[in-house]
Amino acid sequence: MEPLIPHAAAPPEHTGRSVAALLLGAVAIGFAPIFVRLSETGPTATAFWRLLLALPVLAVWAAIERKETGSAVRSRSAFRWIVLTGLFFAGDLALWHWSIRFTSVANATLFANFAAIFVVIFSWLFLRERITPRFGLACVAAVAGTVMLFASNVQLVRERLLGDALGIGTAVFYAAYLLAVKKLRGQLSTAAIMSGSAAVSVPALGIVCLFSGETMLPVSGRGWLILIGLALLSHVAGQSLITYALARLRASFSSVALLLQPFVAALAAWVLLGENITPLQLAGGATILAGIALARPAPKRVLPPDLLV
Questions:
Q1: Does residue 197 belong to any structural domain of this protein?
Q2: Within a domain: 262
Q3: Which residues in 88-105 are b (16+ Cβ under 10 Å) and which e?
Q4: How would you class 106 by CB atoms within 10 Å of its CB: exposed for 0-12, middle for 13-18, buried for 19 or more?
Q5: Closest CA relative to residue 22, chosen from 184, 195, 250
Q6: 108-140: pLDDT as tens digits
């Protein structure tokens, strides 16, 4: 993976807007596990419908943008990266849903959220992002909080090793997806990336569905509404906000901030599904929030023009 061309420092208000978009995106994708649990189709089929139903909205958005700005994917490099982005996202969803088949939901979700660790490592190796002691502490705190969220339900046993390994594979794919999006945001708009990558992910997931033997179609109107909600809230809104934010935020910080997602999922399950939330989980959520606050980039002081050299 080639390093990014560094951008000029973003104004503080733009950085603040990007952080807000990132956190809102994390909240939106936090509802994805609720939709998946309520879905009337199989896990991989649910991922397929999530992207297929989102694609028309994203395609219209991208078409409107092209008409207004004349922007389009013209370089071979950008096209290759869009293909990679779509494949990485399809791999992320497919591996996570298959991991649930061979291990517990708690194990699969915990290991998938280790994506933050891989993003930090890859950002340091390939993007030359400097990892400060403060950021390292923030990352450890956020990951520890995530472990606390799932601690009471996670079981490490030999029979679940395959599912656990697939969960870790999920984390690697999502880390690669975030870094690919970060790479593309230096060249393309949010609409172009979202529509292009979804167009690649849909057939890739369709192929996986052919071999999964899952239930492909919902059996009721409610089932279709659940899939539409997943497509519009978690993908069109959530992933688009994250993609927008990655233009001005470090990939390593973004991955840590996205650990807000499992805490939002736990709160949503408590409110909407009546699932218990324990004091340890609340403490884990507080630890995640503390880690995100510690990792947040400090606004740079912008000097008046007459003081610039």
A1: yes
A2: yes
A3: bbbbbbbbbbbbbebbbe
A4: middle
A5: 250
A6: 778 888 888 888 888 888 777 778 888 889 999
pTM for the full predicted model: 0.83
pLDDT tens for each residue of 198-229: 999 999 999 988 887 888 999 999 999 999 99
Q: How large a percentage of the chain has pLDDT more than 90? A: 36
Full residue range of the structural domain in which residue 273 is found: 12-296
What pLDDT was estimated at residue 270?
A: 84
Number of domains into which the chain is organized: 1
Place of tokens 């978009």: 21
Q: How far apart are CA 228 and CA 237, in angstroms?
A: 12
Residue 148 lies in a domain: yes
